[in-house]
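Can't paste images in this forum, so I'm doing it all in text. The chain is below; anyone willing to post the predicted C-alpha cells underneath?
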Amino acid sequence: MQERVLFGTYTKKTSQGIYQGTLDTTAKTLTNDGLLVATDNPTYLALSAKDRLYSVDKENDEGGIAAWQLDGSTANKLNAVIAPGTPPAYVAVDEARQLVYSANYHKGTASVMKIADNGELELTDEVTHTGNGPRPEQTEAHIHYTDLTPDNRLAVIDLGADKVYVYNVSATGKLTEQSVLTVEAGFGPRHLVFTPDGQHAFLAGELSSQVASLSYDAQTGSFKVLGIVKTIPDDFSEHNGAAAIRLSQDGHFLYVSNRGYNSLAVFAVDADAQLTPIQQISTEGDFPRDFDLDATEEFAVVVNQNTDNATLYARDQASGKLSLLQKDVHVPEGVCVRF
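Text version of the structure:
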C-alpha cells in the first residue's frame, strides 16, 4: 500500500513550500516526491475530509491561513485569511461545524474561520490572551495550539502563560470561555492529545521537557493535572524543547519529540493515564519539530528541521517501540508531517 504524506516547512534557506511524499508500506520505504506547491513558510498543515488542505501562510509582511484544493499531485489555492504580522503556528479543521482554527504564537491570538461551500475561508472570531510565566520565553502570551476536545469544544494552549483554556464554539464560529487550567509555572505547554475514551489527555511541556497526564470532565469542560514525567533522561543538561505529541489509536502508547536531545520518547500508558517511559530513540538528525504515525500505525515519520531530513521507523504495535528503517530522506527545513 502507498500512503501520501505531506511535509510543511520553513522557507528560510532552500525549501520552496509544501512537499509531497509516499510511504510504501510493503517495501517499507519513504520518498519525497517533490514540491507540491510553492508558498512561503507553510509550517503547519491540516487536511479536511474533502481533500482540502489548510496551511500556515506568509505573504510579504502578513501571515494567516491559506486554503488549497488538492488534486493528485497539484494544489490549487482557494484563498487566504491574512493580517499584518507574524503567521500562526498551528491550524486544525472542525468537520462538524466546517470551521478552521489557528493559533498565533507571537500575537497570542486564537482565530476561527468558516469554511464556505467552495472551501474558502472567512474569519468569524478571534480572541487575544494576556499573561506571562517565569522563563525567558514567557514574557507574554504565546498561543501554540487550537484544536478540538472530544466533546467538540476548543482547547487553546498558551505556552507563555502556562495555561490551557477551553472554549465553547457556536455553529457560526464564535468563542465563549468555558474553563482555564493553570499548569506548573515554567511548564510551557505546547500540544495536546486525548485518549480514545475522551476522559484523559496528555500535554507536552515544551519549556520543561515534560509531559503531563490530565483528566478531562466533559460536563464541566475542564482539565485536572494527574501527574508529570520527563521526556528526556535525568542526566541530560543541554537545552531541549519537547515538541510534537502523538497517541496510538488504542491509547496504550504515547510519543513525544525532543528538540535538543533529538529523540522520540516512548511511554506506555496505563488505565489511569499514568506514563511509564519505555524507549528513547534517536531521530537521526537535529531539531525534530514534528512527526506522525501513518494510518496503519505500523510506521512513524519524523522531520528534522536543522538537518533537512526525514526519518522512517517501523512500529511494533504490541510493544509500542520503534525501530529505524530509513534516515536519509531529504526534506528541506521540515517542520510538519501530515498523513
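The radius of gyration is 19 Å. The mean pLDDT is 98.
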